[in-house]
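Subject: sequence -> C-alpha cells, single chain

Hey, anyone have a minute? Need the predicted structure for the following. Not urgent.
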Amino acid sequence: MNISNRNFYLLALIKISHWFMLVMPIVVLFYQSNNLSMHEIFIIQSIYSISIVAFEIPSGYFADVIGRKKTILIGAWMGVFGFSVYSFSYSFWGFVVAEIILGIGQSMISGADSALLFDSLTDDRNEQAYLKLEGRVISIGNFAEAFAGIIGGLLAVYSLRYPYYGQVLVSAIAVPAAFLLKEPHCSKSRIELGWSQIINVIKYSFSTKKLRWNILYSSFVGVSTLTMAWFVQPWFIFNNVSTEYFGILWTSLNLTVGLSSMLAYKIELKIGEIRTHFLFNLFIIMGFLVLGWTHLWIGLFILFLFYLARGVATPILKNNINKHTPSNIRATVLSVRNFFIRILFSLIGPILGYMTDKLNLAYSLTIGGIVLGIIISISFVLFIITDNLKFEKEVFEQ
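Reply:
Had a minute. Here:
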C-alpha cells in the first residue's frame, strides 16, 4: 500500500474518533441541565476557541518542525484526557478546564492532518487527488457525527452524562491510529525551531497577496459555518422541537454535510470554481438572514441548504490554501487559517449569545448575518481579483 492510501485510511479513522460526537446532539441541553445560560454556553465555547487560538499557529509550526505524526499523536492523547475531565465535571469552571484541554488537543491536529494528507499525495505524485480525498475525509467525519447523533440521543434518554462517558472511549481510537501514521518524505524538509521563524511564516502568508486572501476569505466562511453550528440546537428549542427529534435532525444535517463534501470536487468541475463559491456564499448568508423569521418546516429547508453549502465549501477552501502554500510550511499556514476562524468566533459567539438572551434568536441571527455577509462578500471579491496571480514558490526559504 502506498503512503497516501495508508495515511488516508488512518486519518479517516482519526477523523471518525474526533467527529463521532455522541455529545453534540444534547450539548446545549447538558449545559442547561447544569444551570448554564446561553451567554455562559457561548463563553465556554469562546474559551475553547481561545485555547485553540493560543496554540493554533505554534502547533502548526510544531508540526512543521518535529513532524505531523508526532503532533497528531499528542493531540489524540489530549482528546482522551479532555473528555475524561468533562465526564466528571458539574460546573462552569470544570467545563472550562475540559474545553481548554480539548482546544489544545484540537489545535495539535488541525492543520497537521491536512498537511500530512497533501504531502503524502505529493510523495506519490498525485497532488491533484487532494480535493477529492479531503472531501472524503470530511464526509467520513460528518457521517460519523451523523450516526453518533442517533446513539448519543438514545444514551441521553437514560442520562445526559452517558454520552460523555462514551466519548472518552471513542476519542481513544485516535491514539493507535496516529501512532501508525507514516511521515511523508517531502514533509521531512523542515524549518528550524524558533519564534522568529513563526513570525516569518505569518509575514510570508500575508505579504503574498494570493495566499493572504485565500486565508482571510476561507476564515470568514469558516467562522460563519461554525457560528451557525452552535445556533442549531437553540433554534430547535426556539421552535419547540421535541428533544427526541434532536438526534434525528442532527444526524440528517451531518449526513447532508458528508454527502456534499464527498461531491464537492464534482460540483466544482461541473459548474466552475467561481459559481461554486458564489452559491455556497449565498446559501450561508441567506441562512443567517432568513432562519430566525421562518416557520419550522421552511426553516429546516433553509438549514439543510446551509449545511449543503458548508459541506461543499470546506474541502474547496482548504484545497485552495494547500495549492498556494510551500510544502515545508503547509501545516503552519493551515493553522493560521484555523487561528482566524477561532479568534473571530471567540469575539462573535459571546456577543450573539448575549443578544439571544436579551433580545431573541431571530434578531441575533439576522445581525450576525448582516455583519458576516458583508465581510464574506468583500473578501470573496478580493479573492477573485487575486486568483489569477501566479504562484511560484514551492519551498519557503528562511
